[in-house]
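Running this now, will post back.
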Amino acid sequence: MKKLLFILGFISLISLKSQAQLYNSAVGFRFGPGFFGGSYKFFRTNDNSLEGIVTFHDSFIKLSGLYELNEPIFEEMKKQLAVFFGGGVALGTGHFGNYHNDVTLIGIEGIVGIEYAFKGVPIAASLDWKPTFYLNGGTGYSGFWGNEACFTIRYTF
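Update: finished.
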């Protein structure tokens, strides 16, 4: 009888854990004013995820690796609606406007957003803001850039 109760309790804990996260993995497209790119997000646990993002802007490309905390907004929608925030690193290269020399930028990135996973359909949509503080790059390139706000649509699996 103890074994049966233990097994039922264990199964209950597993099912509660899986209900807290929106999905396991997702891949999708990002776009915003002057930006577009791709995203892959993977939940490590119920409330934390890793996200890899490729961003294109004119003649500039940036790779980002982010660690994110995900918190449901309403208990009754915990598998659908969540806010997320976190940070990571960014590496970019390209040239800007009238400057024709290539620039390689290394930065620290933050992210804050809201995500909705559609019920019964393997689609999630999010809106986020991803500011970056570039550590190098010379005049006009280093420092704070807060102009990357994007909408992301993902296929979840």
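The chain has one domain: 23-156. More later if anyone needs it.
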